[in-house]
Every structure is written in C-alpha cells, then in structure tokens.
From TrEMBL, chain A:
Extent of Basic and acidic residues compositional bias: 103-115
Region (Disordered) location: 99-124
Cellular component terms (Gene Ontology): Golgi membrane
Protein name per Swiss-Prot or TrEMBL: xyloglucan 6-xylosyltransferase
Bilayer-crossing regions: 21-39
Origin species: Citrus sinensis (Sweet orange)
Localization per record: Golgi apparatus membrane
Record-listed E.C. numbers: 2.4.2.39
TrEMBL record, chain B:
Pfam families membership: Glyco_transf_34
Region Disordered, residue ranges: 1-43, 100-120
Gene Ontology biological-process annotations: xyloglucan biosynthetic process
Organism this protein belongs to: Citrus unshiu (Satsuma mandarin)
Enzyme's top EC category: transferase
Membrane topology: Single-pass type II membrane protein
Localization, UniProt: Golgi apparatus membrane
Biased composition (Polar residues): 1-15
E.C. designation(s): 2.4.2.39
GO MF annotation list: hexosyltransferase activity; xyloglucan 6-xylosyltransferase activity
Name assigned to this protein: xyloglucan 6-xylosyltransferase
Length: 441, 458
C-alpha cells in the first residue's frame, strides 16, 4: 500500500526508518526502566535511598560528612519478638515523646536585658582562694543515636561527680534546650547566661563538654592565679593572636567569672550563633579569617578566637590563656601514654605528665558519625575513665585490673583499724574541702 | 579485519557463488540485477553488519545494566557501599565486645571454687569500737565536722553495672536518673557517690550494696548518714527535706508499714530501694548479720527457700536483700527493732504504679514540699528493669511513666530559670516567665521555698 503511494524505493526507506525507530524506542524504554531501577532518575519518582546515595556521592569529598565510621545496630527481624510488650529491645523510643503547645517563635526585636547588680546571700568564696564553683555540662534529652552513647555519657558524668565531690564543686547537668535558635555547640551560651544570673552565689562557672573526662583527681585549679581575670581557657597566646589559628584555644572546658564583664562577653559572642543563614555566613567569614579552619557553619570556638582577635583591646586583658596544665587535653596525644604516666609520675600535676582533663574531641560517642574510628574512640574512652576511676578506687583499696578492664581487684586488705589507713593522694579528706569552723564552737 | 570475521556470513549469503572466490564483484553485479535479499552489494553488507554490531552492543549494554541491577555483577573497584559494610561490621564487633563481660586483657581466670557453705561469710575483719574510733577522729579533725549548720552530713549512694545495659534505652534512663539525683542533692547539700565497681564477687546483684555501704562508712567517718538509693528511683519532690530530727534516736530509717511487717510478715513490708543508715557500730553489726544470706550459689538459694516459707506472699527465688532484712528484723526483733524507724508518713520510697498517673492532678491541687501521697518524695520504678531486656511490666508503660516522673521533677528545677516542660512527656521546654532585669527576685523566692522547713512539713 505504501509502495503505491510513494514509490518502491521511498517505501523501503520509510520502512527502514520505521524499523530503526522501533528499535530505538524499544531500547530507550528499556534503558529508562533499568536506570530507574538501579541508579534512580530524579524527579520521576525515585526511591528515597537513591536520592540519598546520589547526594552522598556528590558530597563525599566533604570531609566532615564522610563516614569514617558508622555505628548502627543491625536490626534483627524477629517477628515473634515484636509482639512482646515487655521486651525493651523492640521498643521504638520515638513513640514516647509528646510535645504539647506550640513552638515558641523568637521575636528578634524583643530586647533581652542583661542582669543587674548582684546581691549575694551566700558567700562567693568558701575560703580565701577557694571560690564557689559550679561545673556545668549537659547532653540531649533524647536517647543517643548510637546504642552505647548513653553509657559513655553516664560514665562521663560519674567521672565528673567524683572529681567535684572531692573538690567541693557543685554540678549542673543540663538536658534542656533553652533557645531553639542556638542549638548544637551554641546551646551553652544561653544556658551559661541563665545560670550566672540565677546563681549569684557562684563565683566561677566551669563549662565542660560531655566528652571530656577528669584524669587527675588530685589536681586543684590554681584559683589565685586568676584573681585578675574573668575568662580562663586552655590555649596559647601566639596561636590565637599571631597565627589566628582556629584551634588556638578550646571552649570545651573553660572558667567564667560571674560578673558584668562575662554577661557582656556572652552578648558579644552570641551573634554568630543563630541557626540558619546567620550561622552559615558567619562560618564563611571565620573560615576566611582563621588559619586552618575547614568549611562548615560557625562554631562557638572559632567565634571566640575571632572575637579575641578583632576586639583584643576590649576583652584580651581579662582573658587568661592557660597552657601550664591541661584544662583541656587533646586525647590523641595523651591516651597512649597512660601506662608510662603511672610508672613515672603521680596525680596532682595536671599537665602533660598527668593531665587534668582528657577531652575526646571529634569522637562524638552520642552520634552515629565521628571523625575517628569507633574502636579507637570507645576503647580509649574506657581507658581514660579507668585511669581516673583508679584514683578514686585507690581511696577504698581497690583498682581496675587493667586500664581496659571493667573489673576491679583489691590492692589493700580490709583492716580492723580503717582510720589508720594512710590516704596516699590526700583526697579522702583533702585541704580544699575543709569547712570553716565556726568561731563560737 | 572485520571482514575476515564475517566471512562465514558472506559465504552463506552468496551461496550461489563459487567458494573461495571473493564474492565482491559477484555480489555487486548480482545486487544490481535483482531486488530480493539474495546477493547484496558490498556496501549494503557492510552497513548491515554495522547495524548488527550496533544492535549487539546496545543489547549487551542493556543486559549488563539489568544484571547489575538484579544480581550485582560489579566490575568496578570496591565502592562506598562495601566500605560502609565493613565499617558496620567492625562497629558491631566493637559494640559486642564492649557489652560482653569478658575483659580484653584479662587472662582466663581459673574458675573460682564454690564458697564453702559451712564457712560463715564475712564482710571484713570484725570492728567493735567504731563509735569511739569515730568520735576520736572527729575531735581530731574539726575541719571535717559531721554536722554542718545543724544538719547532719548525708552521703547519697547509688550505682549501676559497669557494662552497657542490654538495651540502649536503659542507659538513657540511668543517665536521667542520675541527673535527677544530682539536682536534688545540689539543692540540699548532699554528696553523691555513684558506684560502678563490683567490690565483692560473692555479694553480687542487689547484694552488692552491702560491702559498698560498709566500705563507705569506714572511709568517711565525717559522714553521719549514708542513704542508699536504687538507680530506678527518682526524686519527685525537689523541695522536701528529710526530717532528720525525727531520727535522732534511730540508726536505720526505711519505708514500710507496721502492720505489713509485724502482723502479716509480708515480704514487701519494707523497701530497701531507698533507706538511711547511721554511721555507727550498730550499723556495722547489722550489716554483718545481714550479709550471710547473700553469697552467691548454694547459700543464697537455700536462704531464699527459708524466706519464701517464712514471709507472706514471697515467690520462690534466691534470697534478696529486702526479704533478708525483713526476716532478720523479725527473727531477731529484740536485738534490732528499737533502733529501726519504719517511715510511712512520706514516700521515702513510692511505688510508681499508684503515683505516676496522678501527676497532673497533683500539679493542679498541691505543691512541692509535702513528700507524701499528695506530692511524692520518691517515685520508685520497681519491676521496670529498664537496664535489662525484660521487665515485669509493659515497656511502653514503664518508659512513659519514667519520662513523666523525670519531667515532673525537672519542672521543679527549671522553674527557677523560668522554664517548664511542654507536657510531662516532652523533652522540649517553654518559657513560663519572661526574662527580666531583676532575676534575683525569683532566686530568693525559690530559695525560701526550699529552705523553709515549716512549710515543707505541713
């Protein structure tokens, strides 16, 4: 029929074209289906997993998101167990929380007035050179994403409880997000401000991250050294002011005096924090201005460095950058040397010989992803915990079997005259816990 | 080259031509003569082969894709997915190791021989002059007094196992529970000891508190009272202060009911989840009399049987410290009972089931500082066992109740800062008071409500 219309040759050409066209269409169709099934094809309705994969593939070069380690429990599908209401393992925590009321919208115009004059009713100094100190730390009110994260938070707080009991320091463990905009590492700022204002009797507020542990139970902070300063952080002057290095100081463990200066500092520090565009843009400025800083949103530590560099005349005089002892000790260079320290030195030094604080920066035991391998982080945290715990157990005649062991062994036999037992480290009844005896008695 | 491969094809298509002779000229001449598909011109043949090649390649490509999609035939180097898989496996291995009881560096211990059931277990060398020794020590160490501002020094002792809980939720609630205790103790000037060490292999489980209490009493003579509290008990009245004056003639304060104890001899007449021990010789003697029921193995099992027979309502299981104490106090009544204060006026231990659902009603009608059924001092989650795998109650009920109790108590703490939880099940907080330029007014108000003893005992 076609031949009669257009002639034989034409007809054959057309037939050929049609044949080719059919093959092409068929192949195209099959390609689309196969591609859709395997690597996804965007907005044509791809499975979500594929979108994530593509996103991750493109972001793989970004160091911070690259999964160096993954901590996820492999969920065993056991149909029989899911029906048991008494079984904790099958329970989904997300069913538990219920938020009533609406989310508060923060009014950017609302003026947040700073505190007024203090009127202490309890003494700020317990003894000369012994100020009243409040140690502040905290974690999220929701369970950790990582199954052992909460266990390490528990060990960390026990470690802090021990140090603070020995040194007569009070603890505030925060589990509340006071300001939704200042989330993440910035959450400490509104909390610190609130605590300074609510506790006028506190002379120094000691912020400590939840991933930092005390490893020297006998070391007392030299308070008299800071009588003319209001903020004490671990760091080096040259690295901050000359090199402008973003890790020139560390805000994981610092002391802040309860005074007007501190409130002003918090007000000057906070503007880079609000989540969203402000924090991202601030992050770009910080990466540009500070040496060695990778690209990510603004964090409180970089912001502090930047603040000190740009407004040195205003704040620098009252800031003490302590490097004589480890008010913050980077774990990477310390944890392997514990055995050497036990052999050669003794508690009470606080410095590189026996660090006061071992801070597990980058380990992030509560989250799913950290910057270091799982095994190294968790095992070293156990070692650091036991290293500190040994000093406490020694008071009672016990010790961990090894730095990696949870079990304890006796190092001193029970005696019928316990009061004559020598307290080697002097921390059972230490001088810094002495109560002032009333004059009348 | 290609032509050589396809020689057979050509040969078959030019079957009529003589074999061995390159059919090109013949094919060309033949194609010009005929219109059928027989002998074709060379150009046409080449085109055809190219078409075939194209189709073959295309089909091959599609096949590979499909195979890749279905059975994962992968010719590239290990990609991210395999690395992830390896990381997950490694992480699981590390987690399993952490959760196990095996010590990584510990050589295999020789299995301990069973304790000789004939030998009486002892917590330590007998001490008989503790009261005098302690008094002497206190007089020599006046800077560590046992009473501060008229209040006796109290040490709160609690603890949990050194290894992670069987499920992660358990650790989370241990953390919340210790925060709750830190808050109460900070407000009331009480020190805390959180124990994570098994001091004595034989006295394990709920018995582990005995050697711990003894050790702490002897190491801290400046402490007047030691307060044991279970890890599953939470403070729910942050203002209530223990009426220590009431106990000046007693050495053991425990929550319980007189009639359950002396008339019915019930195994739940007293609760050892929250009790106070005075630091004195009497307490050491009681601990020495209490401990022999505890050693793991034959002794504990046999003791359990005795107690089940003697106490009302006790199920059959090994001896626990609570039943043992009740048994001891009943069988050796004359020796101990006059120094034991059985407290039932406030909830030194409050069984959670009757309390947690009434929190909203309490918040509406009453106020903190009462400590009794109107506003319980302590809510104790007996039977929930969040650190294990199975509890005696449904999980959802237990966890919701624990969350509610935690938030109920936390509300009282963060009230000072002008915040409150958005509902008793919510981890989020809301402002209940605007920020002010005079924050200290509220501080004073709160402090007065905490230290006002007359208000709390009404």
């Amino acid at each position: 029929m076609l031949e009669r219309c257009v002639g034989t040759l034409r007809a054959r050409q057309i037939q050929r074209v049609i044949r080719h066209g059919k093959i092409t269409l068929l192949c195209l169709f099959m390609t689309v289906i196969v591609l859709r099934g395997t690597i996804g094809a965007g907005k044509f309705g791809t499975p979500e997993q594929d979108i994530d994969d593509i996103r991750q593939h493109f972001y793989a070069h970004r160091k911070r998101v690259e999964p160096h380690r993954v901590l996820e429990e492999v969920q065993t599908t056991d149909a029989a167990k899911t029906e048991d209401p008494n079984n904790y393992e099958k329970f989904d925590m997300n069913k538990l929380f219920v938020d009533e009321g609406e989310d508060e919208k923060r009014d950017p115009n609302k003026h947040d007035p700073s505190g007024s004059k203090r009127n202490p009713t309890l003494p700020n100094f317990l003894r000369p050179n012994k100020p009243r100190v409040l140690l502040v730390t905290g974690s999220s009110p929701k369970p950790c994403e990582n199954p052992v994260g909460d266990h390490y938070l528990l060990k960390s707080i026990k470690n802090k409880i021990d140090y603070c009991r020995i040194h007569g320091i009070e603890i505030f463990y925060n589990m509340a997000l006071l300001d939704a905009e200042m989330a993440g590492f910035w959450a400490k700022l509104p909390l610190i401000r609130k605590l300074l204002l609510s506790h006028p009797e506190v002379e120094f507020l000691w912020w400590m991250d939840s991933d930092a542990m005390f490893t020297d139970m006998a070391f007392e902070v030299p308070w008299e050294r800071y009588k003319d300063h209001n903020l004490v952080m671990h760091g080096w002057k040259e690295m901050v002011y000359d090199e402008k290095n973003w890790i020139g100081l560390n805000t994981g463990s610092f002391l802040l005096r309860n005074c007007q200066w501190a409130l002003d500092l918090l007000d000057a520090w906070a503007p880079m924090g609000p989540k969203g565009k402000i924090r991202d843009d601030a992050g770009k400025i910080l990466t540009r201005e500070l040496k060695g800083r990778p690209v990510f949103e603004a964090d409180d530590q970089s912001a502090m460095v930047y603040l000190l560099i740009t407004q040195r005349d205003k704040w620098g005089e009252k800031v003490y950058l302590e490097s004589a002892y480890y008010l913050h000790g980077y774990w990477g260079i310390l944890v392997d040397r514990y055995e050497e320290m036990i052999e050669n030195y003794h508690p009470g030094l606080g410095d590189h010989r026996w660090p006061l604080v071992t801070h597990f920066v980058g380990c992030k035991p509560c989250g799913k992803f950290g910057d270091y391998p799982v095994e190294r982080c968790l095992k070293q945290m156990d070692r650091a915990f036991n290293f500190g715990d040994n000093q406490v157990l020694n008071m009672y005649g016990f010790e961990h079997r090894t730095l990696a062991s949870k079990k304890v062994k006796r190092i001193r036999n029970e005696t019928s005259t316990p009061l004559e037992v020598k307290d080697e480290l002097g921390i059972r009844h230490p001088a810094f816990k002495v109560v002032k005896v009333a004059a009348s008695s | 080259m290609g032509q050589d491969n396809f020689t057979p094809l050509k040969r078959s298509s030019t079957g009529a031509a003589a074999g061995g002779v390159l059919p090109t000229t013949n094919a060309a001449s033949a194609a010009n003569g005929r219109t059928g598909r027989g002998a074709m011109p060379r150009g046409r043949q080449i085109q055809k082969t190219f078409n075939n090649i194209k189709i073959t390649i295309l089909c091959g490509f599609v096949t590979i894709l499909v195979l890749r999609g279905t059975i994962g035939v992968n010719f590239s180097s290990p990609d991210e997915e395999t690395i992830n898989q390896q990381l997950i496996e490694e992480a699981n291995r590390v987690l399993a190791e952490i959760r196990s009881d095996v010590d990584p560096d510990d050589p295999d211990e020789p299995s301990d021989s069973e304790t000789n059931p004939n030998a009486t277990y002892s917590l330590g060398p007998k001490i008989s002059s503790w009261d005098l020794d302690r008094k002497a020590w206190l007089s020599h160490n006046a800077e560590f007094p046992s009473h501060v501002d008229g209040k006796p020094k109290i040490l709160l002792v609690t603890g949990s196992t050194p290894k992670p809980c069987d499920n992660p939720i358990g650790d989370h609630y241990l953390l919340k529970s210790v925060k709750n205790k830190i808050d109460y103790c900070r407000l009331h000037g009480i020190e805390i000891i959180y124990n994570m060490a098994h001091l004595d292999k034989e006295l394990s489980g709920y018995w582990a508190k005995l050697p711990l209490l003894r050790k702490l009493m002897l190491s801290h003579p400046e402490i007047e009272w030691i307060w044991w509290m279970d890890s599953d008990a939470m403070f729910t009245d942050m203002v209530f202060e223990l009426p220590m004056d009431k106990y000046k003639d007693y050495n053991l304060v425990v929550h319980g009911y007189h009639d359950l104890m002396f008339i019915q001899k019930s195994w739940i007449a007293l609760n050892t989840g929250s009790f106070l021990f005075r630091n004195c010789q009497w307490s050491l003697d009681l601990l020495d009399a209490w401990a022999p029921f505890g050693p793991k193995g034959v002794i504990r099992d046999e003791a359990g049987k005795i107690m089940t027979a003697y106490l009302k309502g006790r199920p059959a299981f090994e001896a626990d410290d609570q039943s043992a104490l009740i048994y001891l106090l009943l069988t050796q009544k004359d020796k101990w009972i006059d120094k034991v204060f059985i407290e039932s006026e406030f909830y030194l231990h409050g069984y959670w089931v009757g309390l947690v659902d009434r929190y909203e009603e309490m918040m509406e009608k009453y106020h903190p500082g009462l400590g009794d059924e109107r506003w319980p001092f302590v809510t104790h989650f007996v039977g929930c066992k969040p650190c294990g795998s199975y509890g005696d109650y449904p999980v959802e009920r237990c966890l919701k109740s624990m969350e509610r109790a935690f938030n109920f108590a936390d509300n009282q703490v963060i009230k000072l800062y002008g915040f409150g939880h958005r509902g008793l099940l919510s981890p989020k907080i809301k402002r209940i008071r605007n920020d002010t330029t005079a924050p200290l007014e509220f501080v004073d108000q709160f402090r007065h409500s905490v230290t006002d003893k007359s208000g709390s005992q009404n």
